[in-house]
Each structure stands twice: as C-alpha cells, then as structure tokens.
C-alpha cells in the first residue's frame, strides 16, 4: 500500500513513496553507484510519471519538475522557494556558504561577492587562464596520452587558486586539489560521521582547507604576507563595506572562498571534457569551428594572450560552448525548498518539500530543442525559449562565475584545437560513479599525435 501511486486521490504529484522513512533512498544510492549516473534515477521516474513527480529520499519528500513555466516561477520567487542542498553537501560547503544560505543572508553574501566578478577581473582572469593553459600545453608531449578531464582539472584548479587566494606553489596546489577532490567525493555520501566513511573523509578535507584559509588570513592580517591582489584580499580589505554592504565575517569569507574553489573546478573540467568529446564526434562542427579559430589565430592569438575582445569574436565557438553545456547538463537539477504550501503544475506542494528543477530534462525536451540528442551548435539562437537553457541556473541564485566559465571554455577550445592534433583512445560515455556533476568515467583519454610549440 505504501508504494501505491496516490495522485488520483489527493492531487499530489504522482510517484512512488517507497519504504517507510527510507522511501526510495536505496534506489537513489544504487543509481549514484552506477555508471549510468545518478540522473538515471530521475530519468526513469520522469518517463513513468511525467513532468512533475514525487519521491522520498533520506527521509524527506523530493519533487522533480521539468517544465519551463514552473522553473520560471520557482527560480524567481525566492521568498517562496529557498535554495536547499542535501544535508551532506550543506555540511561540506559550510553553513555560511552562499550556496546554502537562506534568502536574506544569501542576499548579503552575494552582494559582497558580486563585485569580485567585475569586467575588470574577467579580463585579468582570461589572461591568467590562457597563460596557465599555454604553460600546460608546453608540457604535453607528442605521442603521449592525455586524459582531458585530469589536465583541465589541473589548469582550472591552478587558475581558481591563483585568482582566489594567490596559491602558486606546486605542492600547495596539489594538496588543495586533492583535498577538494576528497570533499567532492563526499558530496553525495550518506552523512554518517564514522572514520571510514566517505562523508567523514570529506569533512576532514574541509577542515584541512579551512585551516589553510585561516593561516593565510592570519598571515595577511599580521603583515607576514602582503601585496596580494586576489579575491581573498578584496574581501579582507572590504571596500564595499564603505558603500553600505556589511562586512563578511571570517567564517563567511572562508566558507565562500571554499565554495568558489569547489564551484569553479569540477564543473568546468567536466564541461570542457564533454565539449571536446562532442566536437570530436562531429566532424562538421569541428571543421566550422577550426575555420573560425584559425582566423582568430591569424589576428594575433599565436603570439599574445587571448583577451575578452578576442573571445567576443568567436560566435560559432560560443554556440559550441552553449550546446556542450546543454547536452552535457553538468549540473543536472537545481535544488529548492517550498517555504509555504502552493500549487505547481496543478499539484499540491506542501511547505518543506524539496523542489528540484530538472535542468537536464528541460535541456533534452524535444518540444524545446529539436533532436535534443544531436550536438548542433547552430540550434542557437533560434531555440532560445525562456528558461529552456538552465546550465547556470537563472534568477537571484544563478551562477556567479558564468562569464568566467564561458570564457575558460572558449580559451580552452581555441588553444586545444589550434595547438593539438589528437586521436581518442576511449570514447565510452559511461558516467563516473558517485560524482555530483556529470563526469565521464574514462576522463576521456586521447593520444596526442602532435602539439605545436607555443610562443606567447
Ligand atoms: C561550466 C562551469 C559551471 C557551471 C555549469 C556552473 C553552474 C552553476 C549552477 C547550475 C549554479 C546553481 C544555480 C541555482 O541553483 O539556481 C551555480 C552556482 C554558483 N556558481 Fe557556478 N557553474 C560553473 C562554474 C563556476 C565558476 C567558474 C565559478 C567561479 C568561482 C562559479 C561560482 C558559482 C557560485 C558562487 C554559485 C552560487 C551562486 C548563488 O547561490 O548565489 N561557478 N553554478
């Protein structure tokens, strides 16, 4: 009886409530540990029940919604739908992270962080990322095997750590990357604090990162480390405070630097890896892209770093980036919680229920995108219906780093296809188990046939 679909009687969303208390947690955990990826859990129920269905995970009710009209309402009514992550994620990123902060608190933190993502910092960041990528390319040897996921993660980690806290030392960078990886692995773990659990190891990694950040802050305050131009220093100087934006506490600063380190690494590395896979599998796209990118090179990128202006001269590459983000849907759903009883898609939703906007399903909806399984960058801008592209979310909680992310993807695309010739070793599309973001299990290894000398 527990498992029966009760939608017809009470007009609540259809779905399987599963076992008492556990609900469908076991099925969800099985999907997390499967190479089809955790989204398979959602996809199967979306097919069975339609655009709005209900399930029970970790003792809580979760509703998944894949309609653009509902997405618009939910993502814009922050007073009615607040952001909410699973307990494990919330504990790992910290209570003061803007990812988890409730409405008013979130507004204050976002106001402080927003200024860090100015046009000026985007320009400096593009140059920084380009220089780090070119450095990396000089170490890639013809004839060797390159795992795209690993290489993009290393460069993204370097770029983020330099921009946020000016870490440049190789050992410190590696430590940070390893700790962030451990933390990432714990994100979808059952929140049990026993020493051998993934969750516990993630918490330990968080503690070590917090210690590094605390030490850095203390050194700067005591004058041991000076003259840094990075996000951390801007938050410590807090010029915004003079304009009436409240000063962030040290805990808020630490939680949010950590949040940005996490937010800007795996997501971007995964997105770049999928992008290269899609481009590689579509020779027509590759040829059109190459033509455009060789023009950019002719205009000077061979001997100088890329600029935001140069990136703006890449209309086709920009569509490739957008299409890769749509098709890969690295962040698969956007989690919210209903702050009051309401009606969505004609169904009663109770206060306290988790509402997940199913971005992946929206990105693959044939009524919004023609032949959604086809990688077709030219579908844009014609297929830009409102709320049909949610790779970075929308509204007051949309991704703060989206311009940075798009710029990194363009820089990577340009340098990779103009400097390297490669042959794919493993084109398998299986998904990495236990990954929070959609990630290729193989990491996408390629055999480098040749790399050009880079002269900038
Ligand atoms: C391809 C790469 C990226 C993707 C796909 C991505 C996607 C997203 C998504 C879907 C959200 C949540 C939106 C919501 O729940 O409504 C988000 C939030 C966020 N992202 Fe990104 N992101 C990427 C890269 C970055 C980068 C490079 C940064 C820079 C540090 C960044 C910083 C953030 C922050 C700070 C938030 C929280 C915003 C808030 O809650 O106000 N992201 N991102």
UniProtKB/TrEMBL annotation:
Native source species: Phaseolus vulgaris
Keyword Heme: yes
Record lineage: Eukaryota, Viridiplantae, Streptophyta, Embryophyta, Tracheophyta
Keyword Iron part of the UniProt annotation: yes
InterPro entries: Cyt_P450 (IPR001128), Cyt_P450_CS (IPR017972), Cyt_P450_E_grp-I (IPR002401), Cyt_P450_sf (IPR036396)
Protein name per UniProt: Uncharacterized protein
Family per record: Belongs to the cytochrome P450 family.
Cofactor names: heme
UniProt membrane topology term: Single-pass membrane protein
GO terms assigned for molecular function: heme binding; iron ion binding; monooxygenase activity; oxidoreductase activity, acting on paired donors, with incorporation or reduction of molecular oxygen
GO cellular component: membrane
Subcellular location: Membrane
Chain sites annotated for binding heme: 399
UniProt cross-references to SUPFAM superfamilies, sorted A to Z: Cytochrome P450
Key words, A-Z: Heme, Iron, Membrane, Metal-binding, Monooxygenase, Oxidoreductase, Signal, Transmembrane, Transmembrane helix
